[in-house]
């Protein structure tokens, strides 16, 4: 009881202990999951590689700042019980697990070549992949999205559904993830579930200037395994801001300010495994920033040939583990090999 009262008044040391405990607890869980998976794989070695990797990856904060500790504490306040359970265990193989996770989610993945899927009429438009489904828009502003089931139907333009959005979208760098569209509308980021038609939003005071060269987008929404990432410039600012947003609550979890990344000379960008990749106008793709270790990186570059201007969107889809690209009316899919 005493502890609960202390926590209520926010004693920072309790928060610190608690968040360390929470991180250890998660690591142990990860470890167990990995051991189980390893066993499963041994039992059936014909099993293809599953998506388990993405679900058991947890953000490991290389440098845990005071602010982060408070945040972790607030996010996981409910699991003090877990912390007590953990006290009894020995977190023995933690560092090995961390190393393994870092390897699995590193900048050194190989990005494939863009595979041409289909063509639309307008040079400006968008195409988002959500598992086996494509969602396509015709312009950089509008109320409707066309949905296609699979590459072949997109190629032959057999529309599965026309989705009407409750608010118009702005720009082409929006996103559909697990049937929810996350998009820019004036000063807001909207989430709209295409199935249940429920919507939510958060206000974001974004600069009116487009984020990228040859683009109309004021912001770029990216979805990946750990949440939604919004790339934008704040009103009256010229530096890049990135906010990570919780899928379910639509609350900002973290903010980053990245003055060394000049988006005005890039044609697009995307986020995968908490790593920001820049896409230059000549099709050069480079990992440039690691959000979890808070460091600028200079990773291996990949050249995507044949993309023509304007490059309207480049979005990573964690469900199909591939990247959707809309460039000058052409739609491409890029496989990501882990
Ligand atoms: C469908 O894809 C093929 C190549 O895979 C391409 O030659 C053809 O132009 C595409 N059709 C449309 C309508 O985009
Ligand atoms: C999205 O769907 C995938 C596959 O069904 C699931 O593994 C993942 O947890 C979902 N993500 C969210 C945020 O609900
Ligand atoms: C923008 O697109 C035009 C062609 O549409 C191209 O000539 C120009 O180089 C592009 N700008 C940048 C910065 O790549
Ligand atoms: C992130 O930035 C926004 C806008 O400035 C601010 O309202 C919010 O409190 C910040 N959130 C965190 C977690 O730092």
TrEMBL record:
- Matching InterPro entries: Olfac-like_dom (IPR003112), Olfactomedin-like_domain (IPR050605)
Q: Where is the Olfactomedin-like domain?
A: 104-338
> Which Gene Ontology cellular component terms are annotated?
extracellular space
Keyword Hydrolase on entry? no
Annotated signal sequence range: none
Keywords annotated in UniProt? Secreted
Q: Where in the cell is it found?
A: Secreted
List where the protein spans the membrane: none
Which biological process, per GO, is one annotated for this protein?
Answer: signal transduction
Annotated protein name in UniProt: Olfactomedin-like domain-containing protein
Upper lineage is: Eukaryota, Metazoa, Ecdysozoa, Nematoda, Chromadorea
